[in-house]
Amino acid sequence: MGVRSVALPPWWPLAAVVYGYPLWWLLGVAAVVPLLAALVMLRQLWRTSPVVLPRGATWWLLFLVWVVIGVATLWVDAPDAVPGGGPSRIVPFAYRLAWYATCTVVLLWIANSSRLRVPTRKVVDILAWMFVIAAFGGLAGVLLPTLELRSVLELLLPGGVRGNAFVQSLVHPGLADVQTVLGRPEARPKAPFPYANTWGSVLALSLPFFVVAWVKDAGTGRRWAAVAVLVVAAVPTVYSLNRGLWACLVLGLVFLGVLQAWRGRPAQLVATVVVVAGAVLALALSPLGSIVSERFDNQHSNERRSELLVTTVNSAAEGSPVVGFGSTRDVQGSFASIAGGGTPSCPACEVPPLGTQGHLWFVVFAQGLVGALFFVTYFTGALLASLRCRTITEVLATVVLLFFGLQLFVYDTLGIPLLLVMVAIGLAWRDQSRQADSEVVLFRVTTVTSLLARVAGHRRWWVAAPALALAAGLVLAALQPPRHESQQAILLKEAPSYLPAADGGVESPRETTVDTEAALVMAERTMRGAVAGTGVAPADLRQRVRVTAVPSTRVIVLQVTAGDPQVADDEVVALAGAYLAARQDYLAQRRDQYLARLRDRQTELVTVGGPDGRFLSTDQREELAVLGEAVTDIVLTPTSAGEQLRLREAVEQSPPYDLYGASGLGIGILVAAVATALGRRRSARTSSTATGRGRVVRAVQRLTAAGRSRGRAQPKTARTTRSPA
């Protein structure tokens, strides 16, 4: 008796990703399964002929080209970032590239699938379950925030791989991130996703699918179940302290009200306002309301986000505006100190890498300003195409894209969030391009075959422009004047000081910060001392000096670049000497000032208490003793500025072949793309003109033929007329 094969429905890859997501998360393969499902979708697409590209997809394809080009700039030093970097950067780059490819395949798979074989309702229902999974996963994170699991894949990985922070975030299942956002430990739910912000992003982006599948197109029983799920989701939504998620919910309610008013449905609008008002009142009266209020009272992350944003954009614009840096970079120090960084006692002191805290900022940093233009143009076009909201899929796509546009500024949305967005875009375009009751395409579309044919038709441009631009970039890099960098490490001596407090007491020792030292290095006095007798202007030297620090130490590193290696060595040594001399004078001056303050306080107490101190209180006597000890300590403490640890002799910097070459290649590809687009328009105009001329010629031919017919018929009429005569 033979084994009977079971035919799987065409939509099974998407269902396998969503329905099995909790299992994949527990196994540690949740980040890999969608990539494997995309391979199945790609195989199904391979059988489709021709493969149609949704409107505006060429912008997305150009963005993908920019992502690939970024591999050449992975090891380029970015301004304000930690210099250097190892081969480990290729792993997150490959992971992100795989996810971009996966989302592209999902978009094409939806856009090219038949609505009979892959029904819209089924796709929406599948993705609605992602909201249910996120809601209950978030509730588990609230109830069991400290529960840590070990996935199967985590147990199988070697210790070295498992210990990598990036790999750990993907394979280690955790229910919540415990953070001190409100000044006390608070659990921010994240299950079944790697980060709390990813959880919030998925919950918001899957909500429109849930509303359509479980409320709009559902029976009474499922609608009651939807109410229960929404109540469950409300708890982790509040406890997540996720302002981006809250903003999405407010934006969704505003959009719903505007849509109902636009369509002339006042009854539905009033009902929506009443329900929302009741929900807000219930939230305000519940214990959850105080959490929301506290979150808005503790917005300390705003300043850090804005500083990171400015640094990210400036670094990309200054260092690699065309193609970016391919991936993220660690910030040099922190925004509070160039020697800042995370420590066991202060993990929050560590600044997120450049290119994080928002997908848009990642694209700006990793793909440059040009790549960001392609990215934003594609999604803006998709939003405008659906904004009329004529069908449920257009409404769905509009809401999802509005949420996505808001999240781009605060969330890293690569992964499941971007996949949800691509599905919404694909569903809307599929309905827009086909008749309501059939699969007949309504307008001319671009296929992969026609796009490749168009590129082949302009192959001279696609070969010559990138090749010439790449060569020009490499030549320009080779023509850059040679640069040599010399480094001098300096160990700063501690310089404690005791200051009288406002109440007469004595403060604890305070130390100058490393940033104070960096400012002293760049001071005019130091620069003048370094260039004395060389003829070099202080401003010129200052432009070639960089001050860095070893995190969480008192070691600063002076870096000087110059065209000549000996000049670089001499200048960094002179700069170090001038800096230490200036610091020596500064410490001595500050010591004298502090001693004067302490002695003034001593004199004041002695005057009040008399020669033998009989009129002093117990506290004043203790203070007088402490002041005496402080004066003795400061007098006996040497004002040593520091010591030079080592000199790294000048090393020639390699010409920036990678940066200039990648930028040139990108510019060449852009030129070829523009030439192809202009050629297409020219061909379209020529074709239109030829069509018009053809119509005129055919009209003239018809008129001529008609005239000849009348000419042949006229003599017969004349003969007939003359015959009776």
Automatic annotation (TrEMBL):
Keywords: Membrane, Transmembrane, Transmembrane helix. Residues 705-725 are annotated as: Disordered. The chain crosses the membrane at residues 23-46, 58-78, 90-111, 123-144, 198-215, 222-238, 244-262, 269-292, 360-384, 659-678. It comes from the Bacteria. This is O-antigen ligase domain-containing protein. It comes from Phycicoccus avicenniae. The lineage of its organism: Bacteria, Bacillati, Actinomycetota, Actinomycetes, Micrococcales.
